[in-house]
Amino acid sequence: MKLARRKFLHLAAGAVALPAISRVGKAKTYPTRPITIVVPYAAGGSTDLISRVVAERMRRWLRQPIIVENVSGADGSIGTARVVGARPDGYTIVLGGMSTLVFNGALYSLPYDVLNSVTPISPLVTTPFVLLARKTMPANSLYELIDWLKNNLDKASAWIVSSSVHVVTAFFQKEAGTKFTLVPYRGAAPAVQDLAAGQIDLAFFTPDQLPLARAGSTKAYAVTSDTRLARAQDIPTFREMGLPTVSYSGWLAFFGPKDIPKEIVAKLNAAAADALADSVVQSQLADLGIEIFPRERQTPEVLGALQRADAEKWWPIIQQLGISGSATTVVPR
């Protein structure tokens, strides 16, 4: 009887251990099939281009196809929700950023928690904004632009396409003491065309749109980063121009569903780091005016801490700006 009981307990313990053994085995062999990177915006924008540049190199390291899938809508929340609801096996990840995984948490009532429903995998690049204006704008400096806006209250217009653009534009209005109309757009391409044609007056764009200013199609006034951009040393920062509070350095990074095994996170992180170290990838991103995270900061831990720090900073600002009527009650922690 004792022998039978021992055998039963041994078999029961083995049965309990099977799921854990199975997870470990899968992590060791991962990946064995294609991986999908969800980009929660339409194809053709800077976010989409960055994902494809990095994915191509990651594919070689992981030795599996990587499919970049654009799932746009609801300010990036539709594509993000798809990844949040996916199996935590490392085969479905999202290219997230300040808009989707920080700002949206304060702007909308979401079916997921932007801070606690995802697994940070790897930070990739930083994405500050450059304030551009139509080429016929009479102001030739940020000081002159602010004066012009104050003398033409409610006569100017600026585009908004994502929550990050919306928040930074509204914050600039408040800090500069100006007021102008915010015009929603579905994507960057039509906004670029309208700015170049003079149909809108202002726009906060990512640095990939700086060639417009170089070509004389727009005017560039200031960047939201704390230091001047490496490839745009002639454009001052808002801090230099007397508006130190207009400081924004967004980022793009890979996240997965909650509870991805650490071994799989480590493999995806290593693949992303390998891609960012590649000279061709570095050149392609530099051409977009995008700066890569330093190697020592390309860790899941840094990404998770950065996401929460930005939520702690920006969520109160968003509430003060009054641009959200359905702010989430989730508190950074």
State the gist of this model.
The chain is 44% helix and 18% strand. By secondary structure, the chain is of the alpha/beta class. Helix 2 (46-62) packs across helix 9 (262-277), helix 4 packs across helix 6 (163-176) and helix 4 (98-107) crosses helix 11.
Q: Please state the overall shape, judged from the principal axes of the Cα atoms.
A: globular
Radius of gyration over alpha carbons? 23 Å
CATH class of the largest domain: Alpha Beta
How many runs of DSSP E, i.e. beta strands? 11
Q: Estimate nothing, just give the exact number of structural domains.
A: 2
Strand content: 15-25%
Oligomer: single chain
CATH superfamily of the largest domain: Bordetella uptake gene, domain 1
Average per-residue pLDDT, rounded, comes to: 89
Q: Do you know the CATH architecture of the largest domain? A: 3-Layer(aba) Sandwich
- At CATH level 3, the topology of the largest domain is D-Maltodextrin-Binding Protein, domain 2
Question: What share of the residues lie within helices?
Answer: 40-55%
Order of the strands making up the biggest sheet:
2-1-3-10-4-11
H/E element sequence? HEHEHEHEEHEHEHEHEEHHEH
For the sheet with most strands, the description reads: 6 strands, mixed
